């Protein structure tokens, strides 16, 4: 039997950490759907047509190097406004969500568009300043030469694009539970997510 957990929210709110922790706790498979858009964005930077890149995407593309870079994130956010790109990625995500043994998908439109029937929907958020500082630390740890101001501007630009696009904008599903992690450490946020899922199993 399938059991789907949909985790949506803006960049660097803690979705990835919470999703991985939830998957490990319950033994569910995890798909970071941002990686799909990052693959398409990276292929566009290589000169490929983004719709073609989305249509031909396979699981092995998700292992490509450089997908977590700031450049790939910006390119992802640009291709993500394209309705044809989004449509081409739907089946891959829904097939993943239906796998036996349970699945966690994290992204921007999982609870609203990809898996509206998900058993659990969480909307994980935090203030733009807190998210920018977290992303800054991650990128510095990964060896990138970035400034905090540049990352805050980047987070705001990405929020604006993600929330205001015509197709599948970032927003909580009507039945999503919001988790604001601005003042929470990882352990507290993960415990809150696990408690919410436990209450619906
Ligand atoms: O989550 P991540 O930062 O990897 O996502 C990169 C970009 O991909 C986001 O800014 C967003 O524009 C897009 N995205 C999306 N829908 C998803 C996941 C990511 O539009 N489900």
Automatic annotation (TrEMBL):
Keyword rRNA-binding listed: no
SUPFAM superfamilies assigned: P-loop containing nucleoside triphosphate hydrolases (SSF52540)
EC number annotated for this UniProt entry: 2.7.4.25
Predominant place of localization: cytoplasm
GO molecular function, one term: kinase activity
Annotated ATP binding sites: 9-17
Residues covered by the Cytidylate kinase domain: 5-52, 61-197
Annotated keywords: ATP-binding, Cytoplasm, Kinase, Nucleotide-binding, Transferase
Family assignment from sequence similarity: Belongs to the cytidylate kinase family. Type 1 subfamily.
Protein name: Cytidylate kinase
Organism: Lutimaribacter marinistellae
Gene that specifies this protein: cmk
